[in-house]
Task: structure prediction
Amino acid sequence: MSPTPTPLRLGIAGLGTVGIGVVKIIQAHADLIAARSGRPITITAICARDRHRNRDADLSMYEWEDCARDLARRDDVDVFVELIGGDEGIAREATEIALASGKDVVTANKALLAMHGQALAETAEAAGRVIRFEAAVAGGIPVIKTMTESLAGNRIKRVMGVMNGTCNYILTRMQSAGLPYDTVFEEARQLGYLEADPTLDVGGIDASHKLAILAAIAFGSQPAFDAVEIEGIERVSIDDIERAADMGYRIKLLGVAQMTARGLEQRMSPCLVPCDSPLGQLQGGTNMVVIEGDAVGQIVLRGAGAGEGPTASAVLSDIVEIARGVRLPVFGQPAKTLARPQPARTAVPAAYYIRLTLADKPGALAKVAAVLGDSGISIDRMRQYGHAAGEAPVLIVTHKTTPDAIDHAIEALPRTGVITGEPVELRIEEV
Ligand code: HSE
Result:
């Protein structure tokens, strides 16, 4: 008789949506997971802030810990599953304790990895431990494994994506219902879509944590969240959404990372993408990641970026990987070999969308055209809408130009004396 395989024993810290989702999958699919892993996966102990909250799951067979640090120290736990969240405090401390106590770590914590990923990876690898984090980026989409394993033979040229479902919900709902930002933001709050601190979502921070992690894997660099140029969706107006649609574009909160001659460019900002592109067609809270490799070409991954089932599915993929004995460097190559990235401000030329409100005076448009010409910007398309109260909205789509040229023009335009309000400029990303 062959010996009974040793179970992989989990300690789960954090019993929110994701933690409970993980427990439910382990309970529902115990046999299937054991067959695929070659050994049973069991939960030894669990931990959360409030023991007595009704969680719609039977947790009576697991030992309870009041403190995640104590859970991380237990001798009868092989893998510490960190589903607490936050880049500091208990999540970070308990993760460090787990690694120091000889445990592998599975986490969904993008903030922790974006801010402290390098130090944690070095600690883990020096101790022969692994940290896996499929759920940290784009929820149920298997983008970490795709990049780390499936695309290991490629030089990655660019990785980009819509990685915050709440922002994509807000932008697509504004468009479909013709509603202003503030109204839809409030709707999102009522629906429970927003993080406790909504600036994590609408300020682009959550998505930038994810981008910094993808950039590290893609370009063999240390995660560098501080080097992401971040702009959220707060200044996106319904006017811009509707005018961009007239010109054949959708506005998305798009993260882009690429290695340029000047260094690593990482930016998160509202961008225009063609309506008929996969990114342009992305609706509601769904996420999409687009990866371009020199051998594979372009890959598009689409799926749920949040929620109990999708995120727990990603966590389970990591647990099964560890149970199978697969042990990968945290960011796809040994942490000691990751280069400290040289951050580069966005320099890659692109077409831009400019919206301004023009006074109905002779020569007004000529003055705007002169500013663009003086900035070295060539106009591709232009549309002027009907006048109201002596003013007309004007849209300009430029030929490819540099961000510096656009900054120069946007700064100079108000000095023409023929526009009212601030001109709006948005990059058109080639996708
Ligand atoms: N708040 C995120 C989103 C999910 O809306 O996509 C967690 O990262």
Observations:
- Residues 90 and 189 are 27 Å apart (CA to CA).
- The domain at 8-136 is CATH 3.40.50.720 (Rossmann fold).
- Residues 164-166, 195, 201, 206, 305-306 surround L-homoserine (CB under 6 Å).
